[in-house]
TrEMBL record:
<protein>
    <recommendedName>
        <fullName>DUF6876 domain-containing protein</fullName>
    </recommendedName>
</protein>
<dbReference type="Pfam" id="PF21781">
    <property type="entry name" value="DUF6876"/>
</dbReference>
<feature type="domain" description="DUF6876">
    <location>
        <begin position="16"/>
        <end position="102"/>
    </location>
</feature>
<dbReference type="InterPro" id="IPR049241">
    <property type="entry name" value="DUF6876"/>
</dbReference>
Amino acid sequence: MNRITATYSLASTIRMQYMAQTYNCYWLIDKILIEAALNKNLLKEDFQVWKLTWLREDVFELHCSDGNDRELFKEVIPYSDFVASHLTLWFSDRVLLLPSEY
């Protein structure tokens, strides 16, 4: 029950919503917010840097650090139609945002 409650207390900004709509990547916001709410390694970190990086063809890597290059999470995304080669997002005080919004 507490985990479900925690999930609803996470948020993203208006600019994040615009980015998700423009790049058709709501799945990325969902993935990050779900991991931030449920992953024990991430729950204790107030600030996180999330990077989506193109590896090859349609394969990407999603990586999270604490902002000081300490790895907290990493996963290969086997298929995505994401159009950019990379994207960096910040998660601070339970809000997902673009670095320019901080």
